[in-house]
Structures are given as structure tokens and as C-alpha cells.
Write a structure and sequence with these properties.
The chain has a five-stranded mixed beta sheet. It contains six helices and five strands; from the N terminus they run E-E-H-E-H-H-E-E-H-H-H. It is an alpha/beta fold.
């Protein structure tokens, strides 16, 4: 059973990201403030849910949240500032979009930068402990997957519709055969053998 709040504040935002370990595409972050009485029988860490469950949850979260925000950090910026900073920056930008200012922020993971004057707490595996972080993980994952499905249409040889840009054998074989695309992160080791890539 996931917990509703970490702090004693009623306006507590949970935030999480998706796509840190991918070879291409954006890092997507989300922030969510849920009402105190929010509940859903399936809500959990997005990695524990089927794609179908995540797709069911997304509109429920958006309709019932007090506020939510989603931000995309594109691959060019990921390359410029590194993936950890991209994750934190993405979470800050998602919080920026909240129509209600949170009184407290809980973050999945163990790294964060102060956001304005708002107190915060990093929580390892927070997406499997707190409802608002789990909700943020679902939004970040579904928005990112939707985008990867879209660019898959242009570059079907990497099968992003299935692997979502993660370093699967199939994805790496596509890079080996066809080279890198505009969507690939140039600072990531795209192939284990670090072949010179056709850009």
C-alpha cells in the first residue's frame, strides 16, 4: 500500500523522470500534487505496471490531481548538461508548470537541487512508496513512450515502439547497421565497441 504523504503539508508534490538510461530521445519529468483522499487500486511504480495499466492510469491521474506538470529535456540538452542534471532540471521545469505552488516536494532518487525556498526530501525507490511519486512516474513514462512511438514511425529500423530507446540488442544492432540519428544522445556510448558511427 503506497503512502499519501511524506510530510505534514497538504500540498506535497511528488516528482520523477523517465528515460535516463536511454540512448536516444528526451528525458521526461513529471510533478504531481494529489488530493489527500486520492486512491487507485493499480497505482504503483510505473515500471511495475503493464503498458495497458499505465495508459488507463494517465487520464485518471490528470483528472483527479490537484495539479500536474510534464517537461521534456531534449537529447541536445541532455548532451550539454549530462543526464543527471537533465533529470533534475526536468523535474524543476515540471514543478514550474504546477498551477498550485507546493509546500513540500518529494523526489524519486537520491539527487536533487533546491527548488526555490520549498523544502524537499529525496527518497530512494520513492515511486514504490508514495502515491504522488508513483503518479509522476506514470505520467513521465506514458508521455515519453508516446513520443518514442511517434518518432518510431520515421525510424522503424531501431524499433523504438518496443524498446523506447533503451539499449536493447535490437536497438544497438540498428545503430550498428544504420548509424545514429538526430534523436540519439551523442555523449552516450551507443555501442559497446564504440564504433565510429555514421551521423
Amino acid at each position: 500500500m503506497l503512502l499519501s504523504n511524506y510530510s505534514d503539508f497538504s500540498l506535497e508534490a511528488g516528482t520523477d523522470e523517465a528515460g535516463r538510461g536511454c540512448l536516444c530521445g528526451p528525458v521526461v519529468a513529471a510533478a504531481v500534487i494529489l488530493p489527500k483522499d486520492f486512491t487507485h487500486p493499480f497505482l504503483n511504480d510505473s515500471k511495475q505496471l503493464s503498458e495497458k495499466r499505465r495508459e488507463e492510469l494517465r487520464p485518471f491521474i490528470e483528472e483527479n490531481a490537484l495539479a500536474f506538470g510534464v517537461s521534456f529535456i531534449w537529447q541536445e540538452e541532455v548532451d550539454q548538461i549530462n543526464v543527471l542534471q537533465a533529470s533534475i532540471t526536468g523535474m524543476h521545469r515540471a514543478i514550474d508548470q504546477l498551477k498550485i505552488t507546493p509546500e513540500f516536494i518529494i523526489i524519486d532518487g537520491n539527487k536533487f537541487r533546491d527548488y526555490k525556498e520549498i523544502p524537499h526530501k529525496t527518497i530512494v525507490k520513492g515511486d514504490s512508496k508514495y502515491l504522488s511519486i508513483a503518479a509522476a512516474s506514470v505520467l513521465a513514462k506514458t508521455y515519453r513512450d508516446e513520443y518514442m512511438d511517434k518518432i518510431h514511425q520515421e525510424f522503424p529500423m531501431y524499433n523504438w515502439a518496443k524498446n523506447k530507446g533503451y539499449p536493447t540488442k535490437e536497438h544497438r544492432n540498428g545503430i550498428r547497421e544504420f548509424g545514429a540519428t538526430i534523436h540519439h544522445r551523442k555523449t552516450f556510448k551507443l555501442l559497446p565497441e564504440q564504433l565510429k558511427l555514421k551521423i
